[in-house]
Amino acid sequence: MCSNHRLRWALALLLTLGLPWPAAAGVMLGGTRVILGEKDREASIPVKNTGTSFYVVQAWIDAGEGHNKTPLLVTPPLSRLDPGAENILRILRVPGDLPADRESVFWLNVKEIPEKSKEENVLQIAVRSRIKLFYRPAKLVGKPEASRAQLTWAVSPSPQGQGAVLKVGNPTAYHLTFTALNIDGGRQQINADMVPPFGEMSYPLTVIASPQAVQVNFTTLNDYGAETPEERVQVPEGDRPVAVKAELVPVAADAAKR
User: Fold this and answer.
1) Domain that holds residue 112
2) Does an H or E element contain 256, and which?
3) What is the CATH number of the domain that holds 9?
4) Does residue 227 contact residue 221 with C-beta atoms inside 8 Å?
5) pTM strictly above 0.85
6) What is the pLDDT of residues 94-143, one digit of tens each?
7) Contact 46/35 with Cβ under 8 angstroms?
8) Looking at the 3D structure of the chain, how many domains does it have?
9) Three-state SS for 146?
10) pLDDT tens digits, one per residue of 135-183
11) Inter-CA distances, 83 with 98, 125, 147, 171, Å
12) Cα–Cα distance measured from residue 151 to residue 233, given in angstroms and rounded to the nearest whole number
């Protein structure tokens, strides 16, 4: 596995020593997320070797780093993928308890292990791709595409006693994944990720010194991994998030033509 820290360290080492850098990642996943429905026999995602040499592909599912025990499995867990070849990873449910009133989220990990180089002094790195895997019970209330309209919002005092935080609540049974969360026309960009079902997230606000209303522009990801149209919402000051109607941000004429 290769963390960002280790990858930066490896790049610096290569530049320092003048060692040849191996080719970029050759194994590509055919999606950015996988959804397994309760009534589905399985979910699948293709993997393709776009490189010029073979890779050993290792695949596994976890519930977060260090939490490898899950009621889901992926097959094949280990396979050889020749140049230009494609394989299908299949995700299956196995016995184990999962909530019936909300989605559960896991991670699908795919690591490409290159063949041993015949050259000397070549640094090889096993690259890991990691995407979200959602298990979706059959009797959830509402539709996932309608969930972002039900988000709740508030600007509240910081728990530390100074400053303010943006609170985002998710009263739905589905995970909401942000791709952008911009405050007051881009004065602050929040690196937001995912608000869990029936959960709430808080993000420090650096553009205001105390709680006050702000405008938030946001986009999310849909079931296909595509970005939803940009919306904006006027978030009021308050201790608890409340429902506020969002509106679509008009698309500029020149952008629409593209």
Assistant:
1) 4-136
2) helix 253-257
3) 2.60.40.10
4) yes
5) no
6) 998 999 999 999 999 999 998 776 666 556 677 899 999 999 999 999 99
7) no
8) 2
9) helix
10) 999 999 999 999 999 999 999 999 988 899 999 999 999 999 999 999 9
11) 39, 18, 41, 46
12) 10
